[in-house]
Every structure is written in structure tokens, then in C-alpha cells.
Amino acid sequence: MNITKTLQEYFNELSSNSPTPGGGNVAALCGTLSASLGIMVCNLTIGKKKYVDVESEMIRLKEKIENLQKGFIELGQKDNASFDKVMEAFKLPKETEQEKNLRAKAIEEATIGATSAPMEVIQSSKTLLPILEIIIDKGNKNSLSDAGVAVALTRTAANSAYLNVLINCSSLSNQTIANELKKTADILIEEVIRTSDRLFEQVVKAVQSK
């Protein structure tokens, strides 16, 4: 995603008939939003007398989430670039048999490359959740709902990225590679779903008991 653009410009591009930005970019955006909320809860905890005992820990967690936030933004840009390479491969000439073979190889390689960004979004989502768990447990209780939204967005980021991995794998001719990619994605998404569901339920119960 291009963070120099306004939200309205981004929404206009997203709504247009251009294939980028698309779902993969939005997956990374959800991760960015989740990380941003996590940082916000840290900031609302740091400096508060009530939470002085966890202040140093919150500062460390904030730094970790800031790195993930930056990573999600970069993955949004990477997703756009990867998809553009796929489109460029499809535009290659296909008049001769040699051209057809080169085009097919280029499409296959570009499609494999296009699974990289969404796979990393799932991995980053998995990395973010344990950090959010600590924030839920030790952070400012007045921001519990914000931490819960961060969890929900993390799950959405991972699920959305997972769909992008699957659709790219379905286009691959090399089913060995496709199956390996899907297996890795399956393992990651299962953990993300399991952890995010548990944390979301924890937040719901905590908010209801306030």
C-alpha cells in the first residue's frame, strides 16, 4: 500500500476495475490496522501510575509491534508488485512454441512469487497474536475493546491472506510446490484461528465483567 496517499485515494483505487490494490493488499492493511491498535494500547498504558509495574514491558512490546506494523505496510507493497509481475507474464508473446514455453514458465514463477507476501502476512499475524495476548492481560483495561479489535483484525488479515495463497496455488502447474505451500499455510492459519478465537473470547468475557 502507498501510505503517502489519502484514505479516499486508496478507497477509490480499491473500488476501481484495476486488479491492484486487491484482496492481498487489504489483508496486509488489516494487519497494519491491528498492529496500530496494539501500539495504541501500549501508549495508553505507558506513563500511567496504575501500570508502572509493566511500563518497561509495554515499551518493549510496543517496539516489537512497530516492527510488525512496518512489515505489514511493506507486505502490502510487495503484494501489489508480485501481482503486477503475474500480469506482465501473461502479456508475454505466445506465437511460437518457444514463446509459449517461456511465457508458461514466467507465469508459473511469478505465481509462486505471488504467494510470498500473503504467506508472510499469515506468519506476521501469528507472531503478533502472542504480543496482543500480553497486552490484553497487562495493558490498560480501559482499552480492552481496542485490543479485542486488534485480535479480530489479525484474524481477518490472516484469513484474507490465506485465501490469496490458495487461489495462487490453484493456478500452479507444479502441484508438488502447490501442495507444499498449502500445507504450510494450513498449519499457520489453524494456529492463528485457534489463538485469535481464544483471545477474542477472553476479551469478550473481560469486557462483559467490567
Task: Characterize this entry briefly.
This protein is mostly helical and 210 residues long.
Query: Can you identify the CATH superfamily?
Result: Formiminotetrahydrofolate cyclodeaminase monomer, up-and-down helical bundle
Summarize the main sheet: none
- Report low-confidence residues grouped into runs of 5 or more: none
Helical content, roughly? over 70%
**Second CATH tier, the architecture:** Up-down Bundle
- What is the number of E strands? 0
Alpha-carbon Rg, integer: 20 Å
Question: Can you walk me through this structure?
Answer:
The chain is mainly alpha-helical. The chain has a single domain (about 20-210), classed as Four Helix Bundle (Hemerythrin (Met), subunit A), CATH 1.20.120. Helices cover about 80% and strands about 0% of the residues. The protein contains seven helices and no strands. The chain has helices at about 5-15, 25-45, 55-90, 95-115, 115-140, 145-170, 175-210. Helix 2 (about 25-45) packs antiparallel against helix 6 (about 145-170). The mean pLDDT is about 95.
